[in-house]
Design a protein that fits this description.
Layout: H1 3-8, H2 11-34, H3 36-41, H4 43-68, E1 72-77, E2 90-94, H5 101-111, E3 119-123, H6 132-138, E4 142-144, H7 148-160, E5 170-173, H8 182-194, H9 208-217, E6 224-232, H10 240-244, E7 250-259, H11 267-291, E8 298-299, H12 305-344, H13 351-366
Parallel strand pairs: 1-7, 2-5, 2-6, 3-4, 3-5
Antiparallel strand pairs: 1-8, 6-7
Helix pairs in contact: 2-4, 2-6, 2-12, 4-5, 4-6, 4-12, 7-9, 9-11
GO cellular component, one term: mitochondrial outer membrane
Domain Phospholipid/glycerol acyltransferase: 90-212
Pathway: Lipid metabolism; Phospholipid metabolism; CDP-diacylglycerol biosynthesis; CDP-diacylglycerol from sn-glycerol 3-phosphate: step 2/3
């Protein structure tokens, strides 16, 4: 194990990455909060600002996958469809089989300039989670309670709000609803058998209502559905902990563009279409296991140096702001406690606080 790999596997390295992400994320959340009055003046300007702010958070996760872990994400697609990516609104249908498939999906978005404006269908509870959840709230992410009777109106309204969105966006959908596990797969296939639906070896049964509602409400807004099938070479089982430890994975993403007008408008026909799509995904994965990679239509889309420098400088700037704020806050608290000790405790010193101060100064000096 080399020195760099050893460094990446250390807990202090992980702690530093999380520290930068959380604190810079909270600063971005605060800036997003400051845009609230702007919504009353210029909704579109507020949206554009929030797209850039959201990119500041999401790009850190993508950079961790690509630059820290060194994971390679290879795109396979039709060369005729490639020029359209990033230049149109689209619904991206991804398989939900791995811990980091959302990171690979975001990498796909980042390559074509829509990471800051990418959307998902997320649980309502996530809206209350600091950094990511708050970022999504200002990005107008579609939240749902997974109770269709309650979700129908709110999801429809949220999707309709995207019709006048000022920049191109991709709406990422995990139609399986949850990540693949053997137990979930067994239950899902029992449901498929009871409904007379074909069994899927590598996927859960797709949930068709959410897909149909999304397609119906984004007709005229989104131009296509990007059927995206993700797999990892050599039977790799990627994990978030592996990414933090700097382990390199090899992801292959097969994407085909399907014009939205070719998808049936009738709910029953649309459901049948989606089930057929997942059967085709199964064939792609079976082909992959034998003929890895997917096909000869491979396109390497590398991260540009300018983008990397932007991310690095941005994170460092946010970190420095956080350090300055933390230092000022520490001084204020320190002086307050000294005053308290002088007035009420004589001139006794709090040894625990002195120890905290020395550790804090050490961290700040190292940072």
């Amino acid at each position: 194990m080399g020195f760099l790999q050893l460094l990446k596997s250390q807990f202090l390295s992980h702690l530093f990455i999380c520290y930068v992400f959380l604190l810079s994320g909270l600063i971005v959340n605060l800036l997003q909060l400051c845009t609230l009055p702007l919504w009353l003046v210029s909704k579109q300007l507020a949206r554009r600002i929030n797209i850039r702010l959201c990119y500041c958070i999401a790009s850190q996760l993508v950079a961790t996958l690509e630059w820290w872990s060194g994971t390679e994400c290879t795109l396979y697609t039709d060369p005729k469809s490639y020029p359209l990516y990033g230049k149109e609104n689209a619904i991206v249908v991804l398989n939900h089989s791995f811990e980091i498939d959302f990171l690979c999906g975001w990498t796909f978005c980042d390559r074509f300039g829509v990471l800051g404006s990418s959307k998902v269908l997320a649980k309502k509870e996530l809206a209350y989670v600091p950094v990511i959840g708050w970022m999504w709230y200002f990005l107008e992410i579609v939240f749902c309670k997974r109770k269709w009777e309650e979700d129908r109106t709110t999801v429809t309204q949220s999707l309709q709000n995207l019709k006048d969105y000022p920049e191109h966006f991709w709406f990422l959908l995990f139609c399986e609803g949850t990540r693949f596990t053997p137990k979930k797969h067994q239950i899902s296939m029992q449901v498929a058998q009871s409904k007379g639906l074909p069994k899927l070896k590598y996927h859960l049964l797709p949930r068709t209502k959410g897909f149909w509602v999304t397609v119906q409400n984004l007709r005229g807004t989104a131009a296509a559905v990007y059927d995206s099938t993700l797999n990892f070479r050599d039977n790799e089982v990627p994990t978030l902990l592996g990414v933090l430890n700097g382990k390199k994975y090899h992801a292959d993403l097969y994407v085909r563009r399907i014009p939205l007008e070719s998808i049936p408008e009738d709910e029953a026909e649309c459901s049948a279409w989606l089930h057929k799509l997942y059967q085709e995904k199964l064939h792609y994965l079976l082909y992959f296991t034998v003929h890895c990679p997917f096909s000869n239509n491979v396109i390497f889309v590398v991260c540009k140096l300018l983008e990397f420098l932007f991310r690095s400088n941005l994170c460092l700037t946010l970190l420095m702001c956080d350090v300055i704020v933390s230092k000022i806050s520490f001084i204020v608290v320190n002086r307050t406690l000294h005053a308290y000790n002088f007035l009420f405790q004589g001139k006794r010193k709090v040894q625990v606080f002195k120890l905290y101060k020395s550790v804090t100064n050490c961290i700040l000096d190292c940072g």
